[in-house]
Amino acid sequence: MTVNPPTEVSPVLAAACRLVDPCGHCDTRHLSVCMGVDEQFLGQLAAVITTSHLPAHGMLASEGDDAACFFNVTSGSVKLYKLLPDGRQQIVGFLFPGDFIGLAVRDTYAYSVEAIVPTVACRFERRKFEALLDRFPNMAFRLRERASDELAIAQEQMLSLGRKSAKERVASFLIQLSDRALRLGRPANPIVLPMTRADMADYLGLTIETVSRTISKLKAEGTIRLGAGNEIRLNAEKLAEIAEGWGD
After folding, report:
1. Looking at the structure, do residues 96 and 204 belong to the same domain, yes or no?
2. Which residues contact 92 (CB under 8 A, 6 or more apart)?
């Protein structure tokens, strides 16, 4: 008897499965706060979410708007930023699949959230989400874990802006992206930069020219190698030395 090899699930069928059972077929549930909901209760989770599809530069939330919803990124990536009085923006973070948006809000959104590439996010009405936390204590536990992670990242960012040179900041940022890719189950090397040089500059407290010069210098030294598109291959050991202030 001839056994046919297993065939891959077609994109159309996969999309249909996600439409019928969005939480059960979510590729990033194991990375998010939703992991705190047992599979037998995923229907209850799916019943309180809607899905937002954003093009690049689409707005998920705007600073100062009523914080009526929380969000969970399931694909793509977004940037969080505040507008300064002179019209400039200060980027305070980049979020990727599995990241939750809404931990630090009160009655209004503290930041604007903009897609930097085509992005999909689950939208939770705030009142319904808070009811979920009461119903599923493990979800609340994962939310506290995520808050702790965000605090650690914020502290590292404060150190970077206050003490590190431009070269050390860029090196640290590339390492952060590598670590994040590993958490997502993707190769840690090479990495892909979804954000622009301008976004990197706003996040790192540098000018675009400084970011571009620093990347060129890292490339000339052989610390990084630029590939097709936005791909960057890292000399991880050398990059870590620079990030810690041991390099040139």
Report:
1. no
2. 80, 81, 82, 111, 157, 203
CATH number of the domain within which 235 lies: 1.10.10.10
How does pLDDT run across 134-189, given as a tens digit for each residue?
Answer: 888 888 787 777 776 766 677 676 766 667 899 999 999 999 899 888 887 788 99
> Is this structure's pTM higher than 0.85?
no
Buried b (16+ CB within 10 A) or exposed e, 177-206: bbebbeeeeeebebbebbbebebbbbbbbb
On whether residue 151 sits in a domain, the answer given is no
The domain containing residue 126 runs over which residues? 11-146
Residues 131 and 170 in one domain: no
The conformation of residue 235, written as its DSSP 8-state character, comes to -
The tens digit of pLDDT for each residue in 62-97 reads: 998 988 899 999 999 999 999 888 888 899 889 999
